[in-house]
Amino acid sequence: MMNLEDIKKIKLTDYQYFLPEEKIAKYPVSPRDASKLLVYQNGYIEESHFYELAKFIPSNSLIVFNNTRVIPARIHFKKETGSIIEILLLEPFNNSYEKIFQEKYKVQWKCMVGNAKKWKINEKLTLKFNNDAFLEAQWLKKTQSEIIVEFTWNTKQTFEEILSLIGKIPLPPYLNRPSENRDFLDYQTIYAKNLGAVAAPTAGLHFTENVFNQLKIKNIDATEVTLHVSAGTFKPISAQNILEHTMHEEICYISQQTIKKLYEHSDCIISVGTTSLRVLESLYWFTVNKFQTFEQWFPYQNQTQSHYSFNEILLKCLDFMEKNNLNIITFPTRLFIVPGYQFHSANALITNFHQPESTLILLVAAWLGEDWKNVYKYALENNFRFLSYGDSSLLFRKKN
Residue 18: which residues within 8 A CB-CB, separation 6 or more? Predict the structure, then answer.
């Protein structure tokens, strides 16, 4: 495992590659599982389609999904002056995800605001809908990274119902197009359950009932975790010194049943997406840190504590949950996985193709080592589609 001095030597430009605009998928393929699949294992690359995924996964494996559900988190208000104020919901303020969507009449959210200079503190914005119904937004205060906004409305509907009427799906900015009605379905996994994400766990967008049936035939089990993907996943790394980048915080949720399944299948765990992988790796360090929140560089500063196997960590976690009568364990993570990181959990990663110089490409480089360049070179030269609505890959871990 690298230490902080080693991380300081990482050059962000080494994780740059040229991504032509025409390689970025603006819309998904149909059906979902018709997307291409790049399979990497032991240095070799094979090309297939996602509907054949089960063929490449060993029997008796466990696939880990992130069951977060994308919310229509983008709201547009038009002022009397004609100015458009765009509010992007980030996460609840002084409330839980479980409760806030069922609230009535008033909620408060941490938000990003577009055209914020046209909106004054305490000024109310109004959005009318359904005849006499209206939603008001009031800027309460600004923190270091977001604006706290209070929303009030004059109907008996829950906030979830209000959002379904007036909210827009928050498509990634690199798609360079407004969201459309079809995105309400396209930008959502078919197994999405828990409301809270403002970005889809896009590795899961390729799964269909047909793919699930093929996995069952091969006795491949499945389990779920939750990580509500935040807008921070698109935050570019602006500093050449990686140590200066502040990783966004996201909340992990893992059930006792999932931890038991992970223990039973520890020989072959397949992570669907970088978000599921971050949950599993974060669970390791959260447990190592005696079930206390840890900072983003904690793993690199506490290498001597990484001698535990993943199974040992899972047993410690189960013991902690039983002693504290917990069915679900939840904790925040800012884990930043960079090249040189030592993985503890999964054996394979299903993921799309990511932006150059992003936190996600650094994670893939940590997973594959220098072979990440061969994978991306192959994808670019063989007409793979990139980013959220693009094609998929199944990457077996490059051993440290």
Answer: 356
Q: At what angle do helices 359-368 and 274-288 cross, to 10 degrees?
A: 80
Q: In which residue are the tokens 């094979």 written?
A: 46
Confirm if 374 and 45 have CB atoms less than 8 A apart.
Answer: yes
- Kindly list the averaged pLDDT for each block of 10 residues, start to end, along the chain of length 400: 85 94 96 98 96 97 97 93 92 92 96 90 90 93 89 95 94 90 95 94 98 97 95 76 88 97 96 98 96 94 82 97 97 94 95 95 96 98 97 86
d(CA 3, CA 181): 47
Whole-angstrom CA distances from 121 to 138, 148, 342 are: 7, 10, 46
Locate the DSSP E strands across the chain: 36-41, 44-49, 62-66, 68-70, 74-78, 84-92, 106-114, 124-129, 133-142, 147-153, 194-197, 221-227, 250-255, 269-272, 328-333, 348-352, 392-396
pLDDT at 231: 76
CA dist., res. 120 & res. 142, Å (int): 11
pTM: 0.94
pLDDT of res. 373: 97
User: What is the amino acid identity at position 355?
Assistant: Q
Phi/psi for 139 (5° steps) reads -75, 115
Per-residue pLDDT, 400: 53
Q: Give, in order, the Cα–Cα distances in Å from 258 to each of 62, 181, 255, 265, 266.
A: 10, 34, 5, 11, 12
Name the architecture of domain 4-69+186-396.
3-Layer(aba) Sandwich (3.40)
Closest CA to 118 of 68, 170, 76: 76
For the record, the structure tokens of 384 come out as 């793979």
CA neighbor of 104 nearest in space, from 143, 155, 62: 155
List 109's β-bridge partners, or say none. 92, 149
Contact at 8 Å (CB) between 237 and 337? no
Say if domain 73-167 classifies as CATH 2.40.10.240.
Answer: yes
Strand partners, 63: 222, 270
Model pLDDT, residue 3:
83
Q: Which parts of 159-214 are beta strand (E)? A: 194-197
The residues spanned by each domain of the chain are 4-69+186-396, 73-167
- With beta carbons less than 8 A apart as the criterion, state whether 173 and 355 touch: no
Helix axes 256-264, 310-323, angle to 10 degrees: 150
